[in-house]
Amino acid sequence: MAALCGLMALSFALAMTRVYQVDEAQTVYMATVLAKGWTGSLFTSGQLHLYPLSLLARIGSSSATTFLVFRACFWALFWVNAALAVRASGLRVRSSQGVKGLVLMGTLAPWWGYALECRHDNILITGLLVLWILARRTRMDRDRVFLGLGFVSLLLHACLFKAIALWAPLAVLWVYLEPGGWGTRARRAGAWFLGAAGGYLACQAFKALVGNPSLAGNGQGALQVAASAERFAPWNTLRMLLGTSPLLVAAMGGLLLLGAMQLRRRGLRGAWEAEAGFPEILLFVVCAFAFFVNPTPFPYNLAVLTTGAMVALLALGRPWFEPGAFNAVRGLPFLISSGLLLHLTPWTLRVAELFSLTNERQEEIMAMTEAFTGPEDPVFDGIGMVPTRRAPTYEWVINWANQGRFREHPLFAGLGDQVPPVVLPSYRLGYLPPSDRAFLSANYLLLHKDFWVLGASPRASAEPGTWTCLRSGRYALIPIRPNPGPVTLDGKPLPRGITWIAKGPHQLAMDPAAPSALSWVGPTAQTPPTPGNDGAPSLCPVPGGF
Fold first, then answer.
1. Which of 18, 27, 64 is nearest to 365 (CA)?
2. pLDDT at residue 546 in the model
3. Which residues contact 135 (CB under 8 A, 6 or more apart)?
């Protein structure tokens, strides 16, 4: 129990401090769009899970607080999913065996990497485990069980369209392997479809209340995204799993070998009914199927794959959780030490790496952005890192699915009055076309590597040149070198300090030997900002190394 409490405390500390990923920012921002009623002017997904998340978006008074609220919620979901996985394996959560199972789930490296983040895959894990518990661990009448399975499957599909790769093959297995004749199976299938129809109607009723897109539209959109996505093989992702969980990878291979032996010995139906752990091995196989058919198997998809593997391992290892189970095992100290070395050492190294990637700088940038903008000023970053500010355009998110659209239709050329005074760089700005990147270079000043504001860079000539102010507001002169020279705007000396400048073309002149930069400072700043060379070129880390 002490180990479990320690893991819970350690995971909470990590959830509160580790760096935010771009997909998390996207989730938080889409939920905020729903919470603030911005759906008419800003894109958000119609997936059902965003609606309860939108309630969280109402809690935080600042962007940093909002992100912490979401992280706390997903930390709680992490341990709910751990308890569900233990129950799905057949162990009682409130027992010494269940606590041991929770500790094992709590030292799963891919979960620490991704299951503490604000990702939809963690909600997918919840739905998957609820389905398995309902199908295998409840004692209700079987017709009612299948009614519930159909209902939950459709709700899960409305939350996450890719869940079909899990619930559809599971539904086929459950019906086909149900004890009894074909008449019984037909009745179970009918109950499943009746429950699915109820789930569909419930989703449609919710749609009528909040305007959520229909399930059909959700599925069509998913197919379009899957068809247009740039596919890649899963081998690099699996190589990451091998580096962080070598013992689990070996155990996953053992599960497949054991399942094949059980299948050969008894056949599918016989193994399902008589072989210990075989149903849970099939659950793992379904999770592996969903992973491999995914056109873009990113590392965070490992969370679902390893969940299926751990449920199977816990189910097979139930006898070893009993008190005294290892008393008769020879070489027990060697086995335990080897297992701990192979399991806990990579996990410890992984957790230490995750703690080294903090969100401190990101929260500083969030606060700086809110200080440099008013509530109505737009901010652009392509990911949604500042949910207290609107994006300047309906298509505000840049990702692997829509990057082609941004390359074909430049973003900044048609913004007009919605030109953002602050742009936060991330690697996803690299998806923008050359014209947009040239616009950013010409019109934004890098106060920091990760914080860009509207303004004018130092002039190379003393002759007046045209500078177009894209947004009316308060600007400040920032000296580039000590003892800056005079600056004129439209032929008049521009005072040091903060000055209101109207939108439109202006004649700007300065001494190139002692230049200054002109920087947007927002509605409330009292002193000019101090530029620096700190920060990173990307506000969020590039995926692949964590």
1. 64
2. 38
3. 145, 149, 170, 174
d(CA 307, CA 312): 9
End-to-end CA distance of the chain: 29
Strand order in the sheet with 487-489: 465-469, 504-510, 487-489, 492-493
**pLDDT above 90 covers what percent of the chain?**
46
**Are the C-beta atoms of 408 and 436 separated by less than 8 Å?**
no
Q: Measure the CA–CA gap between 152 and 460, rounded to whole angstroms.
A: 65
DSSP three-state, residue 31: helix
Under 8 Å between Cβ of 485 and 461 = no
DSSP, res 467: E
pLDDT of residue 214: 47
List the single range of 114-118, 413-417, 485-489 with lowest mean pLDDT: 413-417
Is residue 203 a contact partner of residue 154, using CB atoms and an 8 Å limit? yes
Q: 451 forms bridges with which residues in the sheet?
A: 448
HEC assignment per residue over 399-444: CCCCHHHHHHCCCHHHCHHHCCCEECCCHHHHHCCHHHHHHHHHHE
Whether the CB-CB separation of 462 and 439 falls below 8 Å is answered with: no
The pairing of strands 516-520 and 473-479 is antiparallel
What's the confidence (pLDDT) of residue 324?
59
Cβ contact 10:103 at 8 Å:
no
Residue 469 pairs with which residues in a beta bridge? 504
Q: What is the pTM of this model?
A: 0.89
Assigned token pair, 395: 């298509």
Task: From 119, 66, 149, 44, select the one nearest 391 (Cα to Cα).
Answer: 44
Smallest CA-to-CA distance from 166 within 158, 155, 179, 156 is with 156
Q: Which of 71, 64, 58 is nearest to 24 (CA)?
A: 71
Share of the chain above pLDDT 70, in %: 91
Structure tokens at 183: 């008449």
Distance CA 44, CA 486 (A): 48
Cβ count near 429 (within 10 Å) = 22
Residues in CB range of 443: below 8 A, 6 or more apart: 419, 454, 455, 468, 470
The residue count of the chain comes to 546
Question: What pLDDT digit, counting tens, does each position of 73-103 carry?
Answer: 999 999 999 999 999 998 888 888 888 889 9
Of residues 97, 75, 77, 74, the one with CA closest to residue 86? 97
DSSP string, 159-193: H-GGGHHHHHHHHHHHHHTSSS-HHHHHHHHHHHH
* CB of 508 closer than 8 Å to CB of 461: no
